[in-house]
């Protein structure tokens, strides 16, 4: 176990009482700011070679020729891996055993099915030699016309969208609802393709030792990655050791092992030496997933009181030609607004792109931008303030299922955010506010929502005779603060101070912590940790309460409290003894306990589980040039128990800033003739820089939701993006009187 997989050497804060709820700074922050945190590509095993991908410059066709000889003749180049000499795999990379196994491009043939697809790997003594070798391959292609854009191919209704959800769903009859409405709106919105640009590109350092694999690579799901690699190479999962202590961002792109990561493993096998492979920024625009473009049409009907009579949400999206992932954008209309009739539907085209996949709030982010824009349009059609309209229409029970959920907390989010923002002084009509410099000023709002999901996780806890503890789970910290939040839960679970617990994570050799995705990591692995701690304490209490020599003798397990490294009698806290005393007297050096985290099926059946929030935005628009700036964001979020308010706020900030990015910045532009992405770099693919980020405030709304899990934890990673983009768009309307219908909103959209 390498040092950085265990962080108790950097004690956080001395403190008293519960760790949960404390605003601890990131326990790995010291390692990160001093450069001591080792990311995957920072590893250099002895004898390591550098692998560089050669990627296709066409979108569709086949590789007719590669000048392998020229590359191999280059000084320092050791080998060139192509479909001709790529080591055999135990499974076809195009096989799909279940819907969440995604097809990979592993040089299985000479076909090109999207731009930036891997077509060869050059392995060399230096990064420079490998890069130059890749350039010398000079591929020749047989090019076929690329299918580009949402009208670029024949559309069809996918069998499933998102994580296996039906593509078409309804309750009630929207046509009847629309007919009976007093007021109706219909509007179409377009959202662009967005590509993953985590600061740390996908990278892998891999060494084979016989049939054992040693891997450093960023992963949001270590056990899943292990399983996928095991299947492809026909080796036992336990022979694959993956270390992933730190990720420089993931956002969904590192949820499943990507093709290039597996190519690194193949390259190491081919040359019989350790290999490092790091994606260049441009190579991120294809093989690691992206957010699919959408075109969404919403129809709404309202009665005389501004209540929805019908809500119809249709989304058209795109997938690749060879795999299935369909952005479930319309499903955003399932969870927020009450209407007697709701219909959602999807259709899709197949394009010559890499397969779109999960990107922060997949479905909710794209869907909510259209839904929140349309809700705003509906409010105006009824002559109502957009907040008043939402307060009238937000659902008391989950709209599609009728299950109870925590919408009281949503009401509180609206109230707190509106008050902090100062919404009450907003004129209803657009173009009425100007600042001292003459900029058109607009205020808009959006509702945020994200399901409270749990997966499966395990953890192992140990109490040692010296009274210290160990907690192990293969959790993944992609910057969100898992090292810290989980250590807090571990400390409370073991009844110890945080610096008495050696919390270990980030390795596939540890118990399976599930996936850091779906905003479910803290709830899932957190519950496993909590339960592992409880299992150890229960064993310890058994020892003490059954021992005549203990002041706890006869108290019974339920009659005992664990805190500060001691067990106490619940009815008399003066009677207790330390963990060390109990273990020593029992002659034990340590005791161990295991815990699981998983959703409770009965509670799943009875309750709908969502986090909620409300975001308010201010924009300023240059009246002559149409330039838009977001100047202020206030969000209020209710997401169950807050493990660490500093980290949670930080997650909301990140989500909200991505919302600004969605509204105003991000867009992958595809050349219609070649199918290539024209701005596959961080200079031309716009993301907000510091100067684009306004004042951002995130309010944490208290919420006890006893139905999600024993700790009451929901997720916070994705919800921030869901309300914000719509709020910004609605603020643009309020500033200018122009309704944004395509995203990102462009200057030319505002010029008349
Ligand atoms: Mo996320 S898109 O669940 O990593």
Secondary structure topology:
Elements: H1 29-33, E1 49-55, E2 61-65, H2 68-73, E3 77-81, E4 111-112, E5 118-124, H3 127-135, E6 140-143, E7 169-171, H4 174-180, E8 183-191, E9 194-195, E10 203-209, E11 212-216, H5 222-233, E12 240-243, H6 259-271, E13 275-278, E14 290-291, E15 294-302, E16 308-320, E17 342-351, H7 364-381, H8 386-393, H9 407-421, E18 433-434, E19 440-451, E20 457-464, E21 469-472, H10 482-494, E22 501-504, H11 521-545, E23 560-563, E24 566-569, E25 572-578, H12 579-585, E26 590-597, H13 601-606, E27 610-621, E28 628-638, H14 645-664, E29 695-700, H15 719-736, H16 747-750
Helix pairs in contact: 7-8, 7-15, 10-11, 14-15
Bound molecules: dioxothiomolybdenum(VI) ion.
């Amino acid at each position: 176990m390498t040092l950085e997989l265990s962080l108790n050497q950097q004690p956080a804060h001395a403190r008293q009482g519960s760790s949960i709820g404390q605003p601890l700074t990131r326990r790995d922050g010291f390692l990160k700011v001093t450069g001591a945190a080792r990311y995957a590509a920072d590893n250099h095993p002895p004898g390591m070679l550098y692998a560089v991908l050669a990627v296709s410059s066409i979108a569709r066709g086949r590789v007719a020729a590669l000048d392998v000889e020229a590359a191999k003749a280059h000084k320092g180049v050791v080998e060139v891996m192509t479909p001709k000499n790529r080591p055999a795999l135990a499974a076809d990379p195009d096989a799909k055993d279940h819907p969440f196994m995604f097809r990979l491009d592993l040089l299985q043939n000479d076909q090109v099915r999207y731009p930036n697809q891997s077509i060869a790997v050059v392995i060399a003594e230096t990064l420079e030699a490998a890069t130059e070798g890749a350039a010398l391959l000079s591929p020749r292609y047989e090019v076929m016309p690329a299918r580009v854009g949402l009208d670029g191919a024949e559309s069809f209704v996918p069998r499933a969208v998102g994580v296996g959800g039906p593509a078409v769903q309804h309750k009630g009859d929207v046509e009847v609802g629309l007919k009976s409405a007093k007021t109706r709106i219909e509007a179409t919105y377009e959202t662009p393709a967005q590509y993953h640009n985590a600061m740390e590109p996908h990278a892998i350092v891999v060494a084979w030792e016989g049939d054992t694999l040693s891997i450093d690579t960023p992963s949001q799901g270590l056990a899943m990655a292990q399983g996928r690699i095991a299947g492809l190479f026909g080796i036992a999962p336990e022979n694959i050791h993956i270390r992933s202590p730190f990720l420089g961002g993931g956002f969904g792109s590192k949820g499943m092992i990507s093709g290039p990561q597996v190519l690194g493993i193949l390259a190491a096998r081919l040359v019989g030496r350790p290999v490092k492979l790091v994606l260049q920024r441009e190579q991120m625009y294809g093989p690691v997933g992206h957010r699919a473009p959408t075109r969404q049409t919403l129809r709404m009907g309202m009665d005389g009181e501004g209540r929805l009579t019908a809500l119809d949400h249709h989304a058209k999206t795109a997938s690749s030609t060879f795999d299935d992932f369909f952005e479930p954008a319309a499903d955003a209309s399932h969870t927020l607004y009450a209407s007697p009739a709701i219909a959602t539907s999807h259709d899709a085209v197949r394009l010559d792109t890499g397969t779109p996949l999960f990107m922060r709030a997949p479905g909710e982010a794209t869907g909510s931008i259209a839904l929140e824009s349309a809700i705003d349009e509906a409010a105006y059609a009824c002559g109502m303030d957009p907040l008043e309209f939402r307060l009238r229409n937000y659902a008391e029970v989950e709209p599609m299922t009728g299950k109870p959920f925590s919408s009281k907390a949503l009401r509180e989010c609206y109230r707190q955010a509106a008050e902090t923002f100062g919404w009450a002084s907003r004129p209803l009509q657009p173009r009425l506010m100007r600042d001292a410099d003459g900029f058109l000023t607009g205020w808009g709002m959006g509702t945020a929502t994200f399901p409270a999901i749990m997966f499966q996780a395990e953890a192992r806890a140990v109490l040692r005779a010296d009274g210290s503890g160990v907690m192990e789970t293969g959790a993944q910290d992609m910057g969100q603060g898992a090292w810290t939040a989980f250590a807090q839960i571990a400390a409370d679970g073991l009844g110890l101070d945080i610096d008495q617990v050696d919390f270990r994570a980030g390795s596939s050799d540890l118990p399976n912590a599930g996936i850091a995705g779906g905003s479910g990591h803290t709830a899932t692995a957190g519950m496993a940790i909590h339960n592992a701690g409880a299992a150890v304490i229960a064993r310890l209490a058994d020892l003490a309460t059954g021992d005549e020599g203990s002041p706890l003798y006869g108290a019974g397990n339920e009659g005992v409290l664990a805190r500060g490294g001691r067990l106490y009698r619940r009815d008399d806290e003066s009677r207790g003894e330390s963990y060390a005393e109990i273990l020593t007297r029992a002659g034990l050096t340590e005791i161990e306990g295991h815990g699981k985290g998983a959703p409770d099926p009965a509670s799943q059946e009875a309750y709908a589980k969502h986090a909620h929030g409300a975001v308010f935005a201010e924009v300023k628009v240059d009246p002559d040039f149409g330039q838009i700036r977001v100047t202020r964001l206030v969000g209020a979020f209710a997401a169950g128990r807050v493990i660490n308010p500093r980290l949670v706020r930080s997650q909301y900030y990140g989500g909200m800033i991505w919302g600004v990015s969605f509204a105003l910045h991000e867009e992958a532009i595809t050349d219609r003739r070649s199918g290539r992405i024209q701005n596959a770099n961080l200079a031309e693919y716009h993301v907000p820089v510091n100067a684009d980020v306004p004042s951002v405030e995130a309010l944490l709304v208290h919420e006890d939701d006893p139905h999600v899990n024993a700790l009451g934890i929901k997720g916070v990673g994705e919800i921030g993006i869901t309300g914000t983009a719509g709020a910004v768009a609605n603020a643009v309307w309020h500033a200018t009187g122009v309704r944004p219908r395509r995203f990102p909103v462009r200057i030319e959209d505002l010029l008349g």
